[in-house]
Amino acid sequence: MYGGQHPDPNVMYYLTVYNEPMPQPAEPEGLDVEGVLKGMYLLKRAENDGPRAQILASGVAVPWALEAQQLLAQDWGVAADVWSVTSWSELRRDGLDAERAYFVDPDAEPRQAYVTEKLAGARGPFVAVSDYSHEVPDMIRQFVPGQYFTLGADGFGFSDTRAAARRFFLIDGPSVVVRTLEALAGQGAVDRSLARQAIDKYRLLDVTAGTTGNAGGES
Asked: Pfam families this protein is in (predicted)?
């Protein structure tokens, strides 16, 4: 964390610790290091054909996004790319910096926000999921170049297994699937009936039906 040279000697690092086992894969070949440092990179492109969508996820929500990608492909014929967001706040800071630069110098060539640039060629609606409140992924809403939908865990007062809690807050893999189908239906890319079929198939309103994040026990 402190190796090498950093442009800001006052930079601070922090670690977020979760009560959940998380696999730590080796660094893939061709990793977008710039994207990791600037706040977002393409983690896994869809391998199937079909209506396109983009899923943005951060932290422990990344495995749920990958689960949703798989379910969308195998159950609904939707091709969803998954983006790993390493920092919503860094993406927002960059976007605000780009806006400010043009604000104080309107004669200069406008600079696109990093997130806008990264998602410029992506097709379909954008669905973001986080175990933080909705306000966190909403921080980049103005910089996302298309229809943007967020899923988050707002409020307190529900205590159960991790899987049940994620189902309660509608942030687990099947919830991402349903929200993506609804977004695609709104664009006319899929039939509206698919969202209802998915709600019934995954028993979305039943907290006992949740399975996302059960690895490692029920605590």
From this structure: Transketolase_C_1 (PF22613)
